[in-house]
Amino acid sequence: MIIFQTLKISNFKSIESAELSYTSGVWKVEGINNDTSFKSNGSGKTTILEAIQQCLFNKTTASPPIEDTTRKSVGKKVHKRTGYKLELTFTDGKDNYRIVNDREAMRIQIFVNEADMMVKSIPSALKQISTIIGMDFTTFVTLTFINHDTITDLLDNFSSSSLMKVILNFSQISDFEKSAKQEQKVINNSLSNTAARLQTLHDSLSLLDQYREIDMKPLHAKKAAITKVIFDIKDSLLPEVLTKEDKVKEVLAERTSAKSKFTKLQRKYKDSKCECCGQLLNLSEVAREKLLIDVAGLEDQIGNLTLSVQGLELLASQHRETYNTSLSEAEQERLNINNTITIAQTKNQMYNDNKSHADDLRRQTIELEITQENLSFRATVIQTALLVLKSGDIQKDLLSMFVAVLNIHLSHFIEFVSLDYINIKAIATKASVSFTLYDSRFNHNVSIHTLSGGEKTRLRLIVLLSMLQTIKEITSTASNIVIFDESLDTLDDSATSDLANLFDYLVHHDNKFIALVSHGEQLKEIEFTGIITAEKTNGVTKIKKETHVST
After folding, report:
1. Which residues pair with 280 in a beta bridge?
2. Do 433 and 299 share a structural domain?
3. Of 357, 384, 403, which marks where a domain is finished?
4. How far is CA 320 from CA 185, 230, 307, 323, 454, in A?
5. Same domain assignment for residues 323 and 413
6. Is the N end or the C end of the chain the one with fewer CB atoms within 10 Å?
């Protein structure tokens, strides 16, 4: 597909100097002629469109020869006749081209990626240009400049229409087959690369999808509950442990006191005892008995206190062990939940870090899947074309293939207009194409002539756009430019919204530059990307391009 980019015009017909960029969108071309009472006619708006024909093919669809259409004298002001110079840039997706048609120097230069091809003659240059763009003058004009006859011939006289002749006049079948095989190889490689890239993206997404955002609220709630358990253990068990340990201390103090008394009594007993006979001295019988009783009593008390201490120490030890075990388990549980929270926070950070990257990968995946789908569709079309070429009856089979692809686009484009009750289908005959129209409201086929003007308009446009898409796909013959040269002036106002839908699809799907030259008011509801104005004053046309203008 040829993508035209810019056109520079110098001294071409009434245009002294102008530069036009073929920016995608729907552009309104209007004229203002200040030299006549016909404010629109003769302003030079068609000249803007013819300049690209002149640059590429050294001729235009205009009837007068170029020598007689240089800027004329108007009133007393006379313009010197000079040769024109046109410069056009475009790309075929691989290389960048620049064509310079210099009438004054009588030469046409072709630059490929800014390298001069050094073409020796104008005929050689014109032949080379036709080879580069894949179209001769007739085909280029037919596919690019849609006039009133092109529109009205569709459906009514489809098989004899100018667009139909483009289909039936494939003279380079072998070249087509060769280019189709080459394109098939390129598409298969692209499909393979796309599949590999998609697999890489899916693998990356699988790794990234392992990260999930963790809800931290339950974890923090569990940590708070464990912390409360620790406080409860300290509040309930610790006082009891301390009480038992304090009781042990009290009994120990009591036993120590008893032992001290016992020691004193033992000393008193020892001091009162005769070293020779062992009899107590200086004590009455009562005192001696009491001393013996006190000593024995203290021995029993000390024994009892020792047993009490042992029991209390065992009980205190058990309480302390229970307390320490409960506290240790609770604190270990709190340590575990702290570790869990730390791990969760780390995973959440990784999730947040990778979320934007994952979203970007998903967008890339969707774009690649769309590309893969388009490539697969294109591969199917080419495969069908190659099978048809091998079948023998090339013209018949090529026409059948054309009809098959045409019907795909017909079913697609009809969804853009308000004709859901009409089913249109192309049928291949011996050397032509006919259409059947089925009206679901009446459950039978209908004739085009029975439809209203608005319905005819919609169907003709659907057929036109479907054919342009079909020609593009089965021949790779297409450009980004579609110019409706006063061909829509007789259309019904009711078709405006459908026109807008169809043009919007072409702009967004194929990046089309759509120029509408019109004298009528039926296009006033269309939101144009901008307006290209040709205003003539004293025989000189000035071109003005305004973007983002709604009318």
Report:
1. 273
2. no
3. 357
4. 84, 15, 20, 5, 98
5. no
6. C
Are 142 and 256 within one domain?
Answer: no
Q: Is residue 320 part of a domain?
A: yes
Asked, for residue 121, whether it belongs to a domain, the answer is yes
Q: Which domain holds residue 337?
A: 217-357
Say whether both 257 and 337 belong to one domain.
Answer: yes
How many domains are contained in the chain?
Answer: 2
Give the Cα separation of 369 and 344 in Å (integer). Answer: 35
Question: Do 110 and 8 lie in a common domain?
Answer: yes
Q: Closest Cα to residue 361, out of 213, 211, 198?
A: 198
Query: What is the mean pLDDT, run by run of 10 residues, along the chain of 551 residues?
Result: 92 91 89 78 82 91 52 44 85 92 92 92 92 86 80 72 66 64 84 86 74 79 87 80 78 78 71 58 62 72 75 78 84 89 81 73 85 85 74 67 87 84 85 84 86 80 84 79 75 71 85 80 75 89 79 44
- What CATH number has the domain bearing residue 74? 3.40.50.300
Q: How far apart are CA 61 and CA 140, in angstroms?
A: 11
Give the 3-state secondary structure of residue 7.
strand
Please check whether residues 462 and 341 belong to one and the same domain: no
Cβ-contact 5, 91 below 8 angstroms: yes
Which stretches does DSSP call E strand in 331-463? 422-428, 433-439, 444-446
In a domain, 378, yes or no: no
CB-based contact 145:54 (threshold 8 Å):
no
With 0-12 CB in 10 A as exposed, 13-18 as middle and 19+ as buried, what is 431?
Answer: exposed
Q: How far is CA 284 from CA 41, 275, 279, 281, in A?
A: 160, 18, 12, 8
Question: Distance between CA 177 and CA 182 in Å, rounded?
Answer: 9
**Phi and psi at residue 81, to the nearest 5°:** -75, 125
- pLDDT the model gives residue 228: 87
CATH number, domain containing residue 248? 1.10.287
Decide if 198 is inside a domain: no
Q: What DSSP string describes 10-61?
A: EEETTEEEEEEE--SEEEEEEEEETTSS-SSTTSSHHHHHHHHHHHHHS--S
Global pTM reads 0.56
Q: In this structure, are residues 14 and 27 in contact, taking their beta carbons and an 8 Å threshold?
A: no
- 218 phi, psi to nearest 5 deg: -60, -35
Handedness of CA 298, 299, 304, 310 (dihedral sign): positive
CB 412 within 8 A of CB 505: no
d(CA 97, CA 7): 12
What's the token pair of residue 52? 């690209």
Q: What is the model's pLDDT at position 487?
A: 67
